[in-house]
């Protein structure tokens, strides 16, 4: 995410007035800093007040500055355009001034709600962005279309050029990452609730079972024991964990003797379905429809803490650095940190307009996304 020279977020025009306009009469106002500039919304050009906290730096010209009436103007290259009538492009490729022949308008900072619902009639002419992600560091390569119902899981095995996707249409599709073409369709006999990969193994959660494929040997097996839909899967301490609809978390351990996954434990405590799992260190964290998060010790498989700050279903969990992050249908993101006693407590709560259901992480940058009911998978590439 880009920052302006004054420390504010990008996509705002900044007039860096370092001195009075040539020929302008000196006045007491020319030695004052513009309060509107400090707030990031000054639209006067030239402005009679200073647009700088350091007027003595006027002799230094930044690489991105150009001469203009009343001094120099610096602007973020991603913000598009400068003064009135200037060219440039915003992140949708339209010139906010000059290029569109009008005064620049504020760019909407949230996606179109009709697009999110799948029924926007304006298309590319819509003033709100039609995008899942508001970051400039990710670009869409291609939508992978083929599933007939909601996509509920994706897996990209390490070192593989194939992407796996699972859907409520009861199939797992294999995609070629180079061409974006579907390379195979596998019926699994039930709605896919989740999917993960680990080494040569692909795990798929379906009603009353976990399907397992060895992608190298093509071996296939069914892990029975779950009751109802399997909503989440996780791996930690050489155990496979499955979150089930009846509130249990089942665990299996791979046996090299039998070359199979054998039942290892059943973790109980949640009152309703478990819908999210994440492993961090020697802890397993589970989020449930009962509005709680439980912390499990992977060495003893015992629950050591129950977190009850959310007021709705805890849809997704993420371990990042020394923090646990959770998002919920109560429209909040909560950041948890350990106290001196070792227990987790909320250190920050962020309120969102949309209901949050899933997380993704790459290169230590956190992106939260709203899971949309669209039968497609979008592949993205970080620049």
TrEMBL record:
Keywords: DNA-binding, Metal-binding, Repeat, WD repeat, Zinc, Zinc-finger. One of its GO terms (molecular function) is zinc ion binding. InterPro entries: WD40/YVTN_repeat-like_dom_sf, WD40_PAC1, WD40_repeat_CS, WD40_repeat_dom_sf, WD40_rpt, WDR86-like, Znf-CCCH_4, Znf_CCCH. Residues 1-30, 59-103 are annotated as: Disordered. Residues 28-54, 106-133 form the C3H1-type domain. Residues 19-30 have a biased composition (Low complexity). The keyword Zinc-finger applies. WD repeats lie at residues 144-185, 267-306. Pfam families: WD40, zf-CCCH_4. It comes from the Eukaryota. SMART domains: WD40 (SM00320), ZnF_C3H1 (SM00356). Residues 79-101 have a biased composition (Gly residues). A zinc finger (C3H1-type) spans 28-54, 106-133. This is C3H1-type domain-containing protein. It comes from Triticum aestivum (Wheat).
């Amino acid at each position: 995410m880009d920052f302006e020279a004054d420390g504010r977020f990008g996509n705002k025009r900044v007039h860096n007035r370092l001195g009075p306009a040539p020929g302008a009469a000196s006045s007491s106002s020319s030695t004052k800093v513009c309060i509107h500039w400090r707030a990031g919304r000054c639209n006067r050009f030239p402005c009679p007040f200073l647009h700088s906290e350091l007027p003595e730096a006027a002799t230094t010209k930044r690489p991105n500055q150009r001469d203009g009436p009343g001094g120099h103007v610096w602007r973020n290259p991603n913000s598009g355009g400068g003064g009135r009538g200037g060219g440039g492009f915003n992140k949708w490729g339209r010139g906010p001034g000059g290029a569109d022949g009008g005064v620049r308008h504020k760019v909407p900072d949230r996606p179109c709600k009709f697009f999110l619902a799948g029924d926007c009639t304006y298309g590319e002419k819509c003033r709100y962005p039609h995008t899942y992600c508001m970051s400039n560091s990710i670009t869409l390569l291609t939508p992978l279309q083929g599933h007939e119902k909601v996509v509920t899981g994706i897996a990209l095995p390490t070192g593989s050029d194939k992407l796996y996707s699972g859907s409520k249409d009861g199939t797992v599709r294999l995609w070629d990452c180079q061409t974006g073409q579907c390379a195979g369709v596998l019926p699994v006999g039930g709605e896919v609730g989740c999917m993960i990969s680990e080494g040569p193994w692909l795990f798929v959660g379906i009603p009353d079972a976990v399907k397992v494929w060895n992608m190298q040997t093509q071996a296939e097996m069914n892990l029975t024991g779950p009751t109802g839909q399997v909503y989440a899967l996780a791996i930690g301490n050489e155990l496979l964990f499955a979150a089930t609809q009846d509130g249990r978390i089942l665990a299996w351990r791979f046996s090299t003797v039998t070359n199979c996954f054998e039942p290892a434990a059943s973790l109980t405590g949640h009152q309703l379905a478990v819908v999210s799992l994440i492993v961090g260190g020697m802890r397993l964290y589970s989020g449930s429809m009962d509005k709680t998060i439980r912390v499990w010790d992977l060495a003893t498989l015992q629950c050591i803490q129950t977190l009850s700050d959310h007021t709705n279903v805890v849809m997704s969990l993420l371990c990042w650095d020394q923090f646990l992050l959770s998002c919920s249908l109560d429209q909040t993101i909560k950041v948890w940190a350990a106290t001196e006693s070792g227990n987790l407590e909320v250190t920050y709560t962020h309120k969102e307009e949309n209901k949050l259901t899933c997380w993704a992480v790459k290169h230590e940058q956190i992106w939260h996304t709203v899971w949309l009911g669209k039968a497609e998978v979008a592949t993205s590439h970080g620049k």
